[in-house]
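Example record

One chain of 466 residues, shown exactly as stored in the release files.
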Amino acid sequence: MRKVPVIGPTYEEMLHPWKIDSVIRKKAEEMKSIDHLHPLNLYNINWRGFDNKIKYFVLTKEFTGVDANIVVMYAKDMPSGSHKVGPTYSVLTEMTVSHQVDPLIHKLVWPSTGNYGVGGAWVSSRMNYDSLVILPEEMSTERFDLIEEYGSSVIATPGCESNVKEIYDKTHELKAEDPERIRILNQFDSMANYRFHEYVTGNTMVELVKEENIGNGEIAGVALTVGSAGTIAAGDRVKKTFPNAKVIAGEPVQCPTLSLNGYGGHDIQGIGDKHVTWIHNVYNTDGVVQIDDMDCKRMLKVISTKEGQKYLKTIMDSEDVDFMSEKLGISGVANIIAAIKTAKHYDLKEGENIMVIATDSLSRYHSVMDQQEDMTVETAKRYHERIFLYQEPSYFFEGDRMNKARWHNLKYYTWVEQQGKTVEELNDQKEQKYWLNEANKVEEFDKLILEYREKHSKELNDILGV
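Predicted C-alpha coordinates for this chain:
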Protein backbone atom coordinates (compact mmCIF):
# COMPACT_ATOMS: atom_id res chain seq x y z
CA MET A 1 0.00 0.00 0.00
CA ARG A 2 1.32 3.41 -0.96
CA LYS A 3 2.75 5.54 1.83
CA VAL A 4 0.61 8.69 1.56
CA PRO A 5 2.19 11.86 2.96
CA VAL A 6 -0.01 13.39 5.64
CA ILE A 7 -0.81 17.03 4.95
CA GLY A 8 -2.29 19.19 7.70
CA PRO A 9 -3.34 22.84 7.83
CA THR A 10 -3.02 25.59 5.26
CA TYR A 11 -1.18 28.81 6.07
CA GLU A 12 -4.54 30.47 6.64
CA GLU A 13 -5.60 27.71 9.05
CA MET A 14 -2.34 28.09 10.98
CA LEU A 15 -3.05 31.81 11.30
CA HIS A 16 -6.76 31.39 12.09
CA PRO A 17 -7.23 27.85 13.47
CA TRP A 18 -11.00 28.28 13.90
CA LYS A 19 -11.15 27.84 10.11
CA ILE A 20 -10.05 24.21 10.48
CA ASP A 21 -12.85 21.67 10.10
CA SER A 22 -14.51 21.56 13.52
CA VAL A 23 -14.35 17.76 13.83
CA ILE A 24 -10.64 17.69 13.04
CA ARG A 25 -9.87 20.56 15.36
CA LYS A 26 -11.75 18.97 18.24
CA LYS A 27 -9.91 15.68 17.78
CA ALA A 28 -6.58 17.52 17.47
CA GLU A 29 -7.30 19.22 20.79
CA GLU A 30 -7.99 15.87 22.42
CA MET A 31 -4.93 14.26 20.86
CA LYS A 32 -2.58 16.91 22.23
CA SER A 33 -2.90 15.47 25.72
CA ILE A 34 -3.29 11.83 24.64
CA ASP A 35 -0.44 11.36 22.15
CA HIS A 36 1.85 14.23 21.14
CA LEU A 37 3.25 12.06 18.32
CA HIS A 38 -0.07 11.52 16.54
CA PRO A 39 -0.31 13.25 13.12
CA LEU A 40 -3.51 15.03 14.18
CA ASN A 41 -1.20 17.35 16.12
CA LEU A 42 -0.21 18.91 12.81
CA TYR A 43 -3.43 20.87 13.19
CA ASN A 44 -2.12 22.31 16.48
CA ILE A 45 0.60 24.33 14.73
CA ASN A 46 -0.44 27.91 15.49
CA TRP A 47 0.14 30.75 17.95
CA ARG A 48 -3.30 30.41 19.59
CA GLY A 49 -4.86 28.22 22.22
CA PHE A 50 -8.02 26.19 21.72
CA ASP A 51 -9.92 29.24 23.01
CA ASN A 52 -8.50 31.09 19.96
CA LYS A 53 -6.57 33.45 22.24
CA ILE A 54 -2.97 34.20 21.29
CA LYS A 55 -0.34 32.85 23.69
CA TYR A 56 1.51 35.88 25.07
CA PHE A 57 2.51 37.92 28.11
CA VAL A 58 3.61 41.51 28.61
CA LEU A 59 6.74 42.33 30.60
CA THR A 60 6.51 45.10 33.17
CA LYS A 61 8.80 48.09 33.59
CA GLU A 62 9.95 46.71 36.94
CA PHE A 63 11.35 43.72 35.08
CA THR A 64 12.68 45.36 31.90
CA GLY A 65 13.62 48.85 33.06
CA VAL A 66 11.96 50.49 30.03
CA ASP A 67 8.67 52.37 29.64
CA ALA A 68 7.61 50.61 26.46
CA ASN A 69 5.71 47.32 26.60
CA ILE A 70 7.76 44.28 25.63
CA VAL A 71 5.18 41.81 24.35
CA VAL A 72 6.28 38.16 24.29
CA MET A 73 4.52 35.60 22.10
CA TYR A 74 5.56 32.16 23.33
CA ALA A 75 5.85 28.84 21.48
CA LYS A 76 6.18 26.43 24.40
CA ASP A 77 2.77 24.86 23.70
CA MET A 78 3.33 24.25 19.99
CA PRO A 79 3.98 20.67 18.86
CA SER A 80 7.64 19.78 19.55
CA GLY A 81 7.80 22.69 22.04
CA SER A 82 9.19 25.24 19.60
CA HIS A 83 7.93 27.59 16.89
CA LYS A 84 10.33 25.92 14.44
CA VAL A 85 7.67 23.27 13.92
CA GLY A 86 5.83 25.86 11.78
CA PRO A 87 8.63 26.43 9.26
CA THR A 88 9.54 22.73 9.09
CA TYR A 89 5.93 21.80 8.40
CA SER A 90 5.66 24.57 5.79
CA VAL A 91 8.90 23.58 4.06
CA LEU A 92 7.95 19.90 3.81
CA THR A 93 4.33 20.61 2.88
CA GLU A 94 5.26 22.94 0.04
CA MET A 95 7.72 20.36 -1.30
CA THR A 96 5.10 17.61 -1.00
CA VAL A 97 2.23 19.36 -2.78
CA SER A 98 4.62 20.59 -5.52
CA HIS A 99 5.85 16.99 -6.03
CA GLN A 100 9.48 17.61 -5.06
CA VAL A 101 9.56 14.82 -2.48
CA ASP A 102 8.01 11.36 -2.21
CA PRO A 103 8.19 9.22 0.96
CA LEU A 104 8.59 6.03 -1.10
CA ILE A 105 11.69 7.41 -2.79
CA HIS A 106 13.36 10.10 -0.71
CA LYS A 107 15.09 10.46 2.62
CA LEU A 108 14.86 13.97 4.09
CA VAL A 109 17.90 15.71 5.52
CA TRP A 110 17.37 18.63 7.89
CA PRO A 111 20.54 20.75 8.36
CA SER A 112 20.09 22.55 11.67
CA THR A 113 21.69 24.19 14.67
CA GLY A 114 18.87 23.21 16.99
CA ASN A 115 15.10 23.59 17.03
CA TYR A 116 14.70 23.37 13.26
CA GLY A 117 16.17 19.87 13.41
CA VAL A 118 13.89 18.95 16.30
CA GLY A 119 10.90 20.31 14.40
CA GLY A 120 11.99 18.52 11.24
CA ALA A 121 12.22 15.22 13.09
CA TRP A 122 8.74 15.69 14.56
CA VAL A 123 7.14 16.79 11.30
CA SER A 124 8.79 14.16 9.10
CA SER A 125 7.50 11.18 11.05
CA ARG A 126 4.02 12.67 11.44
CA MET A 127 3.87 13.22 7.67
CA ASN A 128 5.13 9.69 6.83
CA TYR A 129 8.71 10.49 5.77
CA ASP A 130 12.07 9.04 6.80
CA SER A 131 14.50 11.72 7.93
CA LEU A 132 17.95 12.57 9.18
CA VAL A 133 18.97 15.64 11.18
CA ILE A 134 22.44 17.18 11.06
CA LEU A 135 23.31 19.08 14.23
CA PRO A 136 26.51 20.55 15.79
CA GLU A 137 27.86 18.32 18.54
CA GLU A 138 27.85 21.10 21.16
CA MET A 139 24.09 21.62 21.07
CA SER A 140 22.13 20.75 24.20
CA THR A 141 21.62 17.10 25.11
CA GLU A 142 17.85 17.66 25.13
CA ARG A 143 17.89 18.42 21.39
CA PHE A 144 19.59 15.15 20.47
CA ASP A 145 17.23 13.18 22.72
CA LEU A 146 14.12 14.74 21.19
CA ILE A 147 15.26 14.14 17.61
CA GLU A 148 15.56 10.42 18.31
CA GLU A 149 12.31 10.32 20.28
CA TYR A 150 10.48 11.90 17.35
CA GLY A 151 11.72 9.23 14.95
CA SER A 152 14.74 10.64 13.12
CA SER A 153 18.36 9.64 13.05
CA VAL A 154 20.98 12.33 13.74
CA ILE A 155 24.54 13.13 12.75
CA ALA A 156 26.62 15.38 15.02
CA THR A 157 29.04 17.67 13.18
CA PRO A 158 32.02 19.46 14.74
CA GLY A 159 31.53 22.71 16.60
CA CYS A 160 28.82 24.86 18.11
CA GLU A 161 25.99 27.14 17.02
CA SER A 162 28.23 29.11 14.64
CA ASN A 163 29.56 26.13 12.72
CA VAL A 164 27.08 26.08 9.85
CA LYS A 165 29.62 25.42 7.10
CA GLU A 166 30.40 22.05 8.70
CA ILE A 167 26.69 21.23 8.47
CA TYR A 168 26.59 22.27 4.81
CA ASP A 169 29.66 20.16 4.07
CA LYS A 170 27.98 17.09 5.55
CA THR A 171 24.79 17.66 3.53
CA HIS A 172 26.84 17.93 0.35
CA GLU A 173 28.63 14.70 1.23
CA LEU A 174 25.34 12.86 1.80
CA LYS A 175 23.82 14.24 -1.38
CA ALA A 176 26.86 13.21 -3.42
CA GLU A 177 26.71 9.67 -2.04
CA ASP A 178 23.02 9.16 -2.94
CA PRO A 179 21.76 12.00 -5.17
CA GLU A 180 18.55 10.28 -6.23
CA ARG A 181 17.37 9.55 -2.70
CA ILE A 182 18.60 12.44 -0.52
CA ARG A 183 16.58 15.65 -0.37
CA ILE A 184 17.94 18.62 1.60
CA LEU A 185 15.40 20.84 3.41
CA ASN A 186 17.50 23.88 4.26
CA GLN A 187 15.90 26.45 6.57
CA PHE A 188 18.51 29.03 5.59
CA ASP A 189 17.35 29.31 1.97
CA SER A 190 13.81 27.92 1.99
CA MET A 191 11.22 30.61 1.32
CA ALA A 192 8.58 28.46 3.03
CA ASN A 193 10.38 29.36 6.29
CA TYR A 194 10.04 33.03 5.31
CA ARG A 195 6.39 32.59 4.34
CA PHE A 196 5.35 30.93 7.60
CA HIS A 197 6.69 33.77 9.70
CA GLU A 198 5.75 36.58 7.34
CA TYR A 199 2.15 35.40 7.07
CA VAL A 200 1.42 33.46 10.25
CA THR A 201 3.72 35.00 12.88
CA GLY A 202 3.62 38.55 11.51
CA ASN A 203 -0.16 38.66 11.14
CA THR A 204 -0.54 37.18 14.62
CA MET A 205 1.56 40.03 16.05
CA VAL A 206 -0.65 42.60 14.33
CA GLU A 207 -3.85 40.89 15.48
CA LEU A 208 -2.54 40.55 19.05
CA VAL A 209 -2.03 44.24 19.77
CA LYS A 210 -5.45 45.02 18.32
CA GLU A 211 -7.44 42.17 19.87
CA GLU A 212 -5.98 42.62 23.34
CA ASN A 213 -5.80 46.45 23.24
CA ILE A 214 -2.15 46.37 24.30
CA GLY A 215 -0.65 49.81 24.83
CA ASN A 216 -1.59 52.16 22.02
CA GLY A 217 -2.73 49.27 19.81
CA GLU A 218 0.21 49.70 17.44
CA ILE A 219 3.65 48.13 17.01
CA ALA A 220 6.69 50.36 17.37
CA GLY A 221 9.26 47.63 16.92
CA VAL A 222 10.00 43.97 16.32
CA ALA A 223 13.23 42.81 17.99
CA LEU A 224 14.37 39.30 17.12
CA THR A 225 17.67 37.51 17.08
CA VAL A 226 18.53 35.87 13.77
CA GLY A 227 19.58 32.33 13.04
CA SER A 228 17.87 31.27 9.85
CA ALA A 229 16.29 34.76 9.83
CA GLY A 230 12.91 33.16 9.37
CA THR A 231 11.25 34.62 12.45
CA ILE A 232 12.31 38.17 11.65
CA ALA A 233 10.26 37.90 8.46
CA ALA A 234 7.35 38.70 10.79
CA GLY A 235 8.65 42.26 10.70
CA ASP A 236 7.95 42.45 6.97
CA ARG A 237 4.28 41.73 7.62
CA VAL A 238 4.14 44.11 10.62
CA LYS A 239 5.46 46.95 8.43
CA LYS A 240 2.58 46.44 6.00
CA THR A 241 0.23 47.57 8.79
CA PHE A 242 2.60 49.77 10.81
CA PRO A 243 5.09 51.22 8.28
CA ASN A 244 6.98 53.17 10.96
CA ALA A 245 7.77 50.04 12.98
CA LYS A 246 11.46 49.30 13.46
CA VAL A 247 12.68 45.79 12.66
CA ILE A 248 15.81 45.05 14.69
CA ALA A 249 18.02 41.96 14.30
CA GLY A 250 19.93 40.70 17.32
CA GLU A 251 23.14 38.70 17.13
CA PRO A 252 25.75 37.49 19.63
CA VAL A 253 28.61 39.80 20.51
CA GLN A 254 30.71 36.62 20.27
CA CYS A 255 29.74 36.22 16.58
CA PRO A 256 28.93 39.68 15.14
CA THR A 257 28.47 38.70 11.51
CA LEU A 258 26.02 41.39 10.40
CA SER A 259 27.28 44.23 12.56
CA LEU A 260 31.03 43.75 12.13
CA ASN A 261 31.43 41.07 9.44
CA GLY A 262 32.60 39.02 12.41
CA TYR A 263 32.96 35.38 13.34
CA GLY A 264 33.33 33.22 16.43
CA GLY A 265 31.58 30.68 18.61
CA HIS A 266 28.71 31.39 21.00
CA ASP A 267 26.00 29.66 23.01
CA ILE A 268 22.73 31.42 22.20
CA GLN A 269 21.45 28.20 20.71
CA GLY A 270 19.26 28.88 17.68
CA ILE A 271 20.81 32.14 16.42
CA GLY A 272 23.94 33.72 14.98
CA ASP A 273 25.18 31.22 12.43
CA LYS A 274 28.21 33.06 11.02
CA HIS A 275 26.60 33.92 7.70
CA VAL A 276 23.77 36.03 6.27
CA THR A 277 20.94 33.73 5.29
CA TRP A 278 19.33 33.73 1.87
CA ILE A 279 15.86 34.40 3.32
CA HIS A 280 16.86 37.46 5.38
CA ASN A 281 15.29 40.59 3.88
CA VAL A 282 18.13 42.82 5.05
CA TYR A 283 16.91 45.84 3.09
CA ASN A 284 13.84 45.83 5.35
CA THR A 285 15.92 45.58 8.55
CA ASP A 286 16.34 48.85 10.44
CA GLY A 287 19.19 47.92 12.74
CA VAL A 288 21.37 45.23 14.28
CA VAL A 289 22.18 44.97 17.98
CA GLN A 290 24.72 42.76 19.73
CA ILE A 291 23.90 40.60 22.77
CA ASP A 292 26.24 38.73 25.12
CA ASP A 293 25.49 35.01 25.31
CA MET A 294 26.49 34.88 29.00
CA ASP A 295 23.94 37.59 29.80
CA CYS A 296 21.25 35.41 28.22
CA LYS A 297 22.20 32.28 30.14
CA ARG A 298 22.57 34.12 33.43
CA MET A 299 19.17 35.79 33.13
CA LEU A 300 17.55 32.49 32.16
CA LYS A 301 18.96 31.03 35.36
CA VAL A 302 17.51 33.97 37.32
CA ILE A 303 14.10 33.36 35.74
CA SER A 304 14.13 29.59 36.10
CA THR A 305 15.59 28.88 39.57
CA LYS A 306 13.91 29.09 42.98
CA GLU A 307 16.42 31.61 44.31
CA GLY A 308 16.13 33.77 41.21
CA GLN A 309 12.34 33.65 41.36
CA LYS A 310 12.45 34.53 45.04
CA TYR A 311 14.22 37.77 44.13
CA LEU A 312 11.92 38.51 41.15
CA LYS A 313 8.87 38.15 43.38
CA THR A 314 10.10 41.11 45.42
CA ILE A 315 9.68 43.38 42.37
CA MET A 316 6.95 41.61 40.35
CA ASP A 317 3.63 39.91 40.86
CA SER A 318 4.26 36.36 42.07
CA GLU A 319 1.88 34.80 39.54
CA ASP A 320 3.61 36.63 36.68
CA VAL A 321 6.97 35.22 37.75
CA ASP A 322 5.60 31.68 37.92
CA PHE A 323 3.85 32.05 34.56
CA MET A 324 6.98 33.31 32.82
CA SER A 325 9.44 30.89 34.40
CA GLU A 326 8.96 27.94 32.02
CA LYS A 327 8.19 29.84 28.84
CA LEU A 328 11.62 31.22 28.00
CA GLY A 329 14.78 29.65 26.60
CA ILE A 330 18.16 31.21 25.92
CA SER A 331 17.13 32.85 22.65
CA GLY A 332 13.90 34.13 24.22
CA VAL A 333 15.96 35.99 26.82
CA ALA A 334 18.22 37.24 24.02
CA ASN A 335 15.18 38.66 22.24
CA ILE A 336 14.12 40.49 25.42
CA ILE A 337 17.60 42.03 25.76
CA ALA A 338 17.41 43.09 22.10
CA ALA A 339 14.02 44.70 22.81
CA ILE A 340 15.37 46.53 25.89
CA LYS A 341 18.24 47.93 23.83
CA THR A 342 15.82 48.88 21.05
CA ALA A 343 13.50 50.70 23.46
CA LYS A 344 16.41 52.66 24.89
CA HIS A 345 17.99 53.41 21.52
CA TYR A 346 14.78 54.84 20.09
CA ASP A 347 13.60 56.32 23.42
CA LEU A 348 10.26 54.54 23.19
CA LYS A 349 7.56 55.77 25.55
CA GLU A 350 4.88 54.26 27.73
CA GLY A 351 2.18 52.62 25.64
CA GLU A 352 4.45 51.81 22.72
CA ASN A 353 4.86 48.10 21.95
CA ILE A 354 7.87 46.02 20.99
CA MET A 355 7.16 42.47 19.83
CA VAL A 356 9.45 39.53 20.63
CA ILE A 357 9.19 35.75 20.41
CA ALA A 358 10.02 33.09 22.98
CA THR A 359 11.01 30.48 20.43
CA ASP A 360 11.21 27.55 22.85
CA SER A 361 11.32 27.04 26.61
CA LEU A 362 13.40 26.01 29.60
CA SER A 363 12.83 22.33 28.78
CA ARG A 364 15.50 22.59 26.06
CA TYR A 365 18.17 23.89 28.43
CA HIS A 366 18.28 22.09 31.78
CA SER A 367 21.66 20.62 30.83
CA VAL A 368 22.98 24.07 29.90
CA MET A 369 21.65 25.62 33.12
CA ASP A 370 23.35 22.90 35.15
CA GLN A 371 26.68 24.19 33.81
CA GLN A 372 26.08 27.69 35.23
CA GLU A 373 27.13 28.85 38.67
CA ASP A 374 24.74 28.36 41.58
CA MET A 375 22.14 31.07 42.01
CA THR A 376 21.50 33.11 45.16
CA VAL A 377 19.02 35.89 45.78
CA GLU A 378 21.88 38.38 45.88
CA THR A 379 23.34 37.07 42.61
CA ALA A 380 19.91 37.20 40.97
CA LYS A 381 19.47 40.84 41.98
CA ARG A 382 22.91 41.76 40.67
CA TYR A 383 22.37 40.01 37.34
CA HIS A 384 18.91 41.48 36.84
CA GLU A 385 20.04 45.00 37.52
CA ARG A 386 23.12 44.81 35.30
CA ILE A 387 21.65 42.80 32.40
CA PHE A 388 18.13 44.27 32.22
CA LEU A 389 17.71 47.45 34.25
CA TYR A 390 21.09 49.01 33.44
CA GLN A 391 21.51 47.53 29.97
CA GLU A 392 23.05 50.09 27.62
CA PRO A 393 21.89 50.50 24.01
CA SER A 394 25.50 49.94 22.96
CA TYR A 395 26.73 48.05 19.91
CA PHE A 396 23.62 49.15 18.03
CA PHE A 397 24.12 49.53 14.29
CA GLU A 398 21.55 51.55 12.34
CA GLY A 399 20.35 50.16 9.03
CA ASP A 400 21.39 53.09 6.87
CA ARG A 401 21.81 52.70 3.12
CA MET A 402 25.46 51.65 3.30
CA ASN A 403 24.99 49.17 6.16
CA LYS A 404 22.09 47.48 4.38
CA ALA A 405 24.27 47.13 1.29
CA ARG A 406 27.02 45.54 3.42
CA TRP A 407 24.59 43.08 5.01
CA HIS A 408 23.23 42.16 1.60
CA ASN A 409 26.64 41.78 -0.02
CA LEU A 410 27.74 39.27 2.62
CA LYS A 411 25.26 36.82 1.14
CA TYR A 412 27.43 36.48 -1.95
CA TYR A 413 30.19 34.48 -0.29
CA THR A 414 27.90 31.80 1.15
CA TRP A 415 25.18 31.59 -1.44
CA VAL A 416 26.78 32.32 -4.80
CA GLU A 417 30.32 31.04 -4.22
CA GLN A 418 29.42 28.02 -2.05
CA GLN A 419 25.75 27.12 -2.47
CA GLY A 420 25.08 27.64 -6.18
CA LYS A 421 22.75 30.65 -6.17
CA THR A 422 23.01 33.14 -9.04
CA VAL A 423 24.18 36.74 -8.91
CA GLU A 424 21.02 37.72 -10.77
CA GLU A 425 18.73 36.42 -8.04
CA LEU A 426 20.96 37.95 -5.38
CA ASN A 427 20.54 41.30 -7.11
CA ASP A 428 16.78 40.77 -7.31
CA GLN A 429 16.66 40.56 -3.51
CA LYS A 430 17.60 44.24 -3.28
CA GLU A 431 14.07 45.17 -4.35
CA GLN A 432 11.09 44.75 -2.02
CA LYS A 433 8.98 43.40 -4.89
CA TYR A 434 11.07 40.21 -4.68
CA TRP A 435 9.96 39.68 -1.08
CA LEU A 436 6.36 40.71 -1.79
CA ASN A 437 6.20 38.12 -4.57
CA GLU A 438 7.49 35.43 -2.21
CA ALA A 439 4.98 36.37 0.50
CA ASN A 440 2.12 36.35 -2.00
CA LYS A 441 2.77 32.68 -2.83
CA VAL A 442 0.91 31.74 0.37
CA GLU A 443 -2.37 31.82 -1.53
CA GLU A 444 -0.95 29.58 -4.27
CA PHE A 445 0.30 26.97 -1.81
CA ASP A 446 -2.90 27.05 0.24
CA LYS A 447 -4.80 26.17 -2.92
CA LEU A 448 -2.45 23.24 -3.58
CA ILE A 449 -2.83 22.01 0.01
CA LEU A 450 -6.61 22.06 -0.24
CA GLU A 451 -6.50 20.22 -3.56
CA TYR A 452 -4.17 17.58 -2.10
CA ARG A 453 -6.38 17.05 0.93
CA GLU A 454 -9.43 16.67 -1.29
CA LYS A 455 -7.69 14.20 -3.61
CA HIS A 456 -6.44 12.03 -0.73
CA SER A 457 -9.32 12.62 1.68
CA LYS A 458 -10.11 8.93 2.29
CA GLU A 459 -6.50 7.95 3.02
CA LEU A 460 -5.91 11.02 5.20
CA ASN A 461 -9.12 10.50 7.16
CA ASP A 462 -8.14 6.87 7.82
CA ILE A 463 -4.68 7.92 9.05
CA LEU A 464 -6.05 10.74 11.19
CA GLY A 465 -8.93 8.69 12.53
CA VAL A 466 -11.66 11.16 11.53
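Notes: Residues 56-80+209-400 form a domain with the Rossmann fold fold (CATH 3.40.50.1100).
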